[in-house]
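A note from the maintainers: we've had questions about how concatenated examples are separated. There is no special marker in the raw files; a new sequence line simply starts the next protein. For clarity in this README we add a label.
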Amino acid sequence: LLLGILGAPALGDPGPLEDVVIDRYYIPKICLREAQMGDFVRYHYNGTFKDGKKFDSSYDRGATVAGVVGVGRLITGMDRGLQGMCVNERRHLIVPPHLGYGSIGVAGLIPPDATLYFDVVMLDIWNKNDKLQITTLSKPERCNRTVENSDFVRYHYNGTLLDGTPFDSSYSKGSTYDTYVGTGWLIKGMDQGLLGMCAGEKRSIIIPPFLAYGEKGYGTVIPPQASLVFSVLLVDFHNPKDGVFLEHLEVPESCKRRAVTGDFVRYHYNGTLMDGTLFDSSYSRNETYNTYIGKGYIIPGMDQGLQGVCMGEQRRVVIPPHLAYGENGAGDKIPGSAVLIFDVHVIDFHNPADPVEIETVFRPEGCNVTTRNRDFVRYHYNCSLLDGTRLFSSHDYEKPQEVTLGANKVIEGLNSGLLDMCAGERRVLIVPPHLGHGENGARGVPGSAVLRFEVELISMEEGVPEGYLFIWHGEPPASLYEQMDLNKDGEIPADEFSTFIKTQVAEGKGRLMPSSDPEKVIADMFQNQDRNQDGKITPDELKLKSDEDQEKIHEEL
């Protein structure tokens, strides 16, 4: 029938047409909607006569034609020819005179009784009863919160007309579109289309013209009465009234203490935007971030977010931009008005006023003698960071650690923790950095690190006062030099001196400064007495330390 109407060589001219002839020469694979009576449509067309002479064209005017289908505002042939069309469908229409401009025509343009040929492409279809069409393309598994009116949003978008013609894109500008929702800053359809979105969600939003730019359109890119299609990716959002949001990912069962203002905290972190983009990480630098909290050294949101953390806690801190880097952002990695997410692992914290924390794990019964400064002790220890990282252990060596307490041979915190211990006692010591290795740390010890020691006192020897290598238990002999000169030759060489001192120790009359090498202590004593370093001590050279100290007092007086 169609071939007959259009004219087939074998059949000849069938005569006048009774209805519109429709040739659907291009039908899109996807047709979400067909034009119905009462629908508002936008389309382009070329109008010609049978001989191909053009009488009109929307393309030549540079503007699409917009109108309502089936209500008599178009010639009857066009009204019928547009019905059932899909967006982007193309049709050839042959309109007989009685469905076109009839026996009158259009003066100077269309002669009477003219058959009209139209080549039409449908660009847009909508109805006054249409609503916003929202399709969720993807949505994150975790969605703790969705967009509400008065929220500030940051999103990327591609904007096209219903026929796919692009008119704008945030991606081409290299930055998100940032604005408030529900306050009149956006077209109504976008205001509604963003509601209920999660950060990271993707949506397709089809907006009818009366919820977009309506009869006026927008500039040269959005024609009047155009439906708009936005493909939206919500990057992040917040509300100006938001505070810091905390999510406790892992909290140790034992939390004896929580961080407060003025504490110095060491922590690792990954910093991301709400869409997951990593902007910074302490792990990448292989060192913790160390700072005081509550004193303004870090962004306000992190100052608040670290309050109350436990040692070893893992916490997520979500910070709105007004508590982070605000409208300007920071550098090229944190955009303006960005919500920041920090996944924090607290390694340790302390306060500059902290003492050594001592926990007695085991104390033997009948503990009457305890360590004091100047005592010589042997002990085993394991040293670690508070996150469990092992640093040092005396068990890695053949012998226990040996030290004279109070002689500045070990860090102050360990020295304090070894005082008042019994042999066999075991303790756990928590040593803050100002009593440990300080801000600079030491070999294998990070700066400002709190240290954990497990110590066991193996043995102890009573010490001697500072500056002494040997002390008498009673009064020294009245004729000390004569008793020390064993062969009575008027001089005391090193071997005689050593033999005499060892005898006094063996008989309990005195004691040496405790040491793992008593021979060296005796050699030091001899060298101190041998004033002229000639290898022997004369009567004039031999002096008790108490007498030397008294002489110094007189000299000062």
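[label: protein 2]
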Amino acid sequence: MSSSDQDDAPDGGSGGEDSPLFRRRGPSSADVAEVPVSQSLIKAASNVCFSLFVLAVLVVTVVAVTYQPPDPWLQSSAAITTSLSRVLPNSTFLVPDDSLLPTGEDFNSSSSPAIPAPAREDPDDSASAVSSAPALNATACDPDAPLNCSDPRVLAAVKAFNAKAFLRKSIIFLSYETPVPGPKPGVCDVAWRFRNRREKSWRRYRDYRRFSLASGDGCTLEIISVGKFRSGTNAARRQPQRKGSKSPRVKTPPVDAEINDTIPVVGSEAEFKKGKYLYYMRGGDHCKSMNQFIWSFLCGLGEAKFLNRTFVMDLNLCLSGAHTVDGKDVDGKDFRYYFDFEHLKESATVVEEGDFLKDWKRWDKKKGPGRITVRKVPSYKVTPMQLKRDKSNIIWRQFNGQEPENYWYRVCEGRAAKVIQRPWYAIWKSKRLMNIVTQIAGRMDWDYDGLHVVRGWKAQHKKMYPNLDADTSPDALAEKVPKLIKPWRDLYIATNEPFYNYFDKLRSHFHVHLLDDYKELWSNSSEWYNETTALSGGKPVPFDEYMRVIVDTEVFFRAKTQVETFNNLTRDCKDGVNTCNL
């Protein structure tokens, strides 16, 4: 009999070995089946149930402690659209729009905290730090020979230096190019490709720096000094000199050879007639805010994907007065000034409207088997679901009504909102603008803090923002910001405040940087200027207010410590009075 059976036996029964009954006969199988075993099974079952209960309590406790509400920006296109639908009205965009709507590269499965703890200063991060390369072919090298920049030891020394100097910065090195001679002996210019951890896209950028090297012990090489961001100009890729140029001594600015935003074309008549197209005629969204344009454009792109059709897009944009200095709309802008057309082509099937209309007119036969079939859709009330089985070559949506009936995004309202998923992943910011962002952050050696100061019309609107103006005054900033950021750090201020000297009181606490400190990056001698001028057919492109918003915001997002207006500086709500909890 088991010990548990003995404990459960009643007094005076078969519970002890000295009992006469125990000595007289052993326990029968019936006794074991009726009492001890049944009780053991009940006890075992109760133990299992209790264990499951304890495990469930632990699981619930862990989930309750660690759970955070899901961030819709880091989820699918459907979740992103649902989140934006809560704040973007269905019929019109009423609030003055000077903000930056996130684009595809902002939506990723990995994110960093909004205000990370600033990294501790590393004394080895100095550009004058000395780095040694291991000896290569020590028996064959001559320490007294002139430095050959193509020597593998040079690149090894540069890699070792970068790995140490950028250890605590947000740079991931991808590849290096062969070092080239600098302007004098002992100096080499080295170029490499990298990406930024704080940028969610896979984009690659270039840096090239000037390194001074000297022979160390044996055959090692030591880096004595390093130039700043893009100081190694001999390693930069430049545009080829034009034939017949009268000024060969003038160096052309570097170019980004990786940008390919040429317009795709339909190769033949047979290919054109084989295709299926969705064509949106220009509607009331033209000359509206950029945020409304993106919201509407992605609706059309999402419908084209749902219908499995090629989207016909107009590269011509009208910049709303919300993004211009004088408040007037400016037509004739190019989509490629602001967004990455190359990435769009890779993410969705699109053709340019001008070429599409020419091909349509050239290859259409009014009668017979070669006729291009067209279905005209006069109203947004014809849903994408009703067009799903349409076999026409072209579905032509016409938006001829009055506002807001002629807005593109009306197509994606109602029942269609549950079917159409806006392809946010297809829209990235322009690589040309992001190159400017990279240069600004690189000049601060990727080690700076950021301050976002919102003023403009919000500071003047006392009913919606009663405290903003006072909370972001020069005196208030001088009192609050030093408590949030370590003294004498490089501080980049992203702001819509038009007066350059507005932040002078912060200069006694920090090394202040503003966007206007980097005007040469979009001047008439810049890489950006040359590339945008080529897109515009030789006409200079002004660096407008929306471009400034993009660059300003992206530089701020790359800061180590980020101080926000509505999170850290003012009691007002971001969207006005009584909206903090919405």
